[in-house]
Design goal:
There is one protein chain. Strand 1 and strand 2 form a beta hairpin. Helix 1 crosses helix 6. The chain is mostly helical. It contains seven helices and two strands, in the order H-H-H-H-E-E-H-H-H. The longest helix is centred in the N-terminal third of the chain and has 21 residues. The radius of gyration is 19 Å and the shape is globular.
């Protein structure tokens, strides 16, 4: 029989609490995003563009904390859906800029109801969720510093 090490119990792990909560959050978003014709990663990309149209793929990659190469298939699908256009920069042809189409901008209006649906599903107050988000951002920033 193994010696007891309660620190290694699954329910004591912060990483599992974050991981399993992320899975549940994605499940809440899935039907809401299906109505918009978006996957969760596509929704995150659209959130970035709704906030700052005309950014580069590199900038989006930094905002989403992902590799630019992994964004390419996702951006191609959004372009095929006519939600955005990818254009080479006039200053540097290696740089790809992203621009919302009229359809992509219009989708923002449909998406405006999603945050309140998520708040409702969480059964938490807006204040509690804001505090949780702020705490998670601080945790993420601390972990990034130590990479």
């Amino acid at each position: 029989m193994q010696p007891s090490c309660s620190e290694l119990e699954l329910d004591h792990q912060l990483c599992f609490a974050l991981y399993s909560t992320s899975l549940m959050m994605t499940k809440v978003y899935k039907p809401l995003l299906k109505e918009l014709g978006l996957t969760y990663p596509q929704y995150l990309a659209m959130l970035v563009l709704w906030q700052c149209d005309g950014i580069t793929v590199g900038t989006m990659s930094k905002r989403l904390l992902t590799d630019p190469g992994s964004l390419t298939p996702l951006l191609k699908r959004l372009e095929a859906e006519r939600l955005l256009n990818r254009k080479r920069s006039h200053q540097d042809e290696r740089v790809v800029e992203l621009y919302l189409t009229d359809k992509g901008r219009a989708l923002r209006e449909e998406a405006c109801r999603i945050p309140s649906c998520v708040v409702h599903a969480s059964e938490q107050s807006v204040e509690a969720l804001t505090q949780l988000k702020d705490d998670l951002v601080r945790l993420r920033e601390s972990l990034q510093k130590n990479q």
